[in-house]
Amino acid sequence: MGMDAETIWLEGSISVEAALLGGCRSVLAVYVQTGNGRRWERRLARLQQLARQARVPLQLVDEAFIAGRVTGNTHGGVVAQAGPRQFVALEALVDGVERPFIVMLDGIEDPYNFGQALRSLYAAGAAGVVVRPRNWFTAAGIVARASAGVSEQMPIAIAETAEQAADTYRQLGLRIAATSNQNAVPLYEANLTEPLFLLLGGEKRGITRSFLAQADLILQIPYQQTNFQQSLGVVASAAIVAFEAMRQRKSYSL
Asked: Has residue 1 been placed in a domain?
């Protein structure tokens, strides 16, 4: 199930390698700018190996070819033409996972923030991510770079609404959580070791009252500066909550 039928361009060896390994989209071809030196040879050998394993053609091209297909200058002479992102069912994110930790990223306005949030969630061991149909995979190249390739490896599902996702995961035995400053449990006092679905709201809308009213757990990130009343951005919130969940789960399993 792709969001559109158009091909996209992934830029940089990290993003391209992640796409070849991740299997979340078809990679049509890999292009590497001709160069010299041991570093270039090592990178080329790695890409050739991965492309061969994935049965994807790899071509050496000139600088002009690369320049006509990139948006920035961080590509390092490597691009790939790829098909649309493939998404999985909501249920697939928890299938076979013990005590799954699933996060829905909703309403993020910036593709760099979206990619950075994915990066933290993946590093902290989240089992998968849920997004709404209008998401930043139309800017897949930016998201892949911002997430250090994680967007091409993290299992991702689509839900029409946060409520739909919550209903599905509640029936599958997950607790429903969200972040807020009202009627909340301090993060470091909450039990995050159980199967958990966490909704993280975007920079503008936040999380609706109706969702908070039916959540099993409302989390608040405590501040040292008591006079700081602003909410943290979604990138920081995702990292803080995800790594606290990782810490608790590691301690729980010892």
From this structure: no
> Of the candidates 101, 103, 112, which has an alpha carbon nearest to the alpha carbon of residue 235?
112
CATH number at residue 52: 3.30.1330.30
The two three-digit tokens of residue 175, written as one number: 């607790």
Residue after which a domain boundary falls, among 35, 52, 82 = 82
For residues 166 and 198, give the distance between their C-alpha atoms in angstroms, rounded to a whole number.
9
| 198 closest CA partner among 128, 109, 112, 107 | 128
User: Which amino acid would we find at residue 250?
Assistant: K
Q: Are 107 and 152 members of one domain?
A: yes
**Which range of residues forms the domain containing residue 30?**
8-82
Indicate whether this model's pTM tops 0.85. yes
Which tokens in the block code for residue 115? Answer: 């990619």
Instruction: Note whether 38 and 121 are same-domain residues.
Output: no
Start-to-end Cα distance in the chain: 39
CB-count burial class (<10 Å; 0-12, 13-18, 19+) for 53: exposed
* pLDDT tens per residue, range 194-203: 999 999 986 6
DSSP code, position 161? S
